[in-house]
Design brief:
One of its GO terms (biological process) is DNA repair. It holds the Pfam family HAD_2. By secondary structure, the chain is α/β, with parallel strands linked by helices.
Length: 217
């Protein structure tokens, strides 16, 4: 039986690439820089923000970008333009919990970028029992050791876990850690043929399909 479902955040639990593209371009505009293209944003999607920005905007002042980004990020959150989790995705999480499965988050985001999702009044409260991010993991995807802290703290066996994500790097990390992996292709950023089939257990077109797929594993 699958005991734990570990879920990526961006373009898995919620669709964020398009909103993040607009957010980052708003910050670049404040720096007086031209906007990046959607193509380059998609090509570097999945990298940590400050690792990706030199490719998205060559020559950008990373320190200044990092200073301006948090306030703009908070404005997007307050306006409901970022990290909106659809009701049908929450219902899917409820099904997983009702079936006795533990739901955890594992993301490449920084602690600051994930903190609001862990507030006691957030819609994820009572659905998600833990979150792993750059603030409490030593490694980054696609390194399979990104799961080390999660496994150590929960006592879970990798064979009892499924990781749900949207990128080939997610699949590589899960496969290397001995976990099953479900590719969520809802965002349209990735196609199934981009994934190494050795690391993909199943694929879904939309997150609400996850409980049914996991029930069959």
């Amino acid at each position: 039986m699958i005991r734990a479902v570990i879920v990526d955040v961006d373009d898995t639990l919620c669709l964020t690439e398009a909103a993040s593209f607009e957010l980052e371009n708003d910050v670049l505009a404040k720096l007086g820089r031209p906007p990046m293209s959607r193509e380059v944003h998609r090509a570097t999607w999945g990298e940590t923000l400050l690792d990706a920005m030199p490719h998205r905007s060559p020559g950008v002042d990373l320190d200044r970008f990092a200073q301006l980004f948090p306030a703009e990020h908070q404005r997007y959150l307050a306006d409901g333009r970022l990290d909106v989790i659809p009701p049908e995705n929450l219902e899917a999480l409820d099904r997983l919990v009702a079936e006795g499965r533990t739901v955890l988050l594992l993301t490449s985001r920084t602690e600051r970028e994930v903190r609001h999702l862990l507030e006691p009044d957030h819609v994820l409260a009572g659905r998600v029992t833990g979150a792993y991010h750059q603030g409490n993991t030593r490694f980054r995807k696609p390194d399979p050791r990104v799961f080390d802290e999660l496994l150590a703290e929960t006592g879970l066996d990798p064979a009892d876990c499924v990781y749900v994500g949207d990128s080939p790097g997610d699949a590589v990390a899960a496969g290397g850690a001995g976990m099953r992996f479900v590719a969520c292709l809802q965002s349209g950023v990735r196609r199934l043929e981009e994934f190494d089939p050795r690391h993909v257990t199943a694929a879904v077109d939309a997150f609400p399909e996850i409980p049914s797929v996991i029930a069959r594993l």
